[in-house]
Amino acid sequence: MERFEGGEENREIAAALRVSERSVERWRRAWRECGEAGVQSRGSPGRPRIGPTQIARLEGELERGPLAHGWADQRWTLARIKTLIGRLFHVSCTIEGTWRLLKRHGRSWHQPARRAIEHDDAAVEVGKKETRPRVRAPRRLSEPGSSSRTRPGRR
Description:
The protein has helices at 2-5, 10-17, 21-34, 36-39, 52-64, 78-89, 95-104, 121-135. By secondary structure, it is an all-alpha fold. It is elongated.
């Protein structure tokens, strides 16, 4: 603004600030029309604006689980959380942005908070040692094969 008031040329301002002349033209027009408010920074356009109260609300909604929000199972995926953020706050973000948001607030999307009630470590070990070997077919011991198409037994 000081440079605009001082009467500097767009070219000089652009060179000093290392921006394009077009940007300086846009800033000068906004300064003429709206004054200081016209040239103030509006923040990064890429980062969704979700405040602490919205984060707290999102945490509560995630605790309710996916079933409460209309999904058929109890898995929170990044795509589902992204959709939930859009529904709750009317903010659009990417899958990667959703992951970063969760990470920034101490959440991990790929680790379940609790284990299934039905999970039994002893039963899993029994299954690995006793059931799996019976279900898997033993390897066939056969004679060496041939890849020849003219082998007499092939026809």
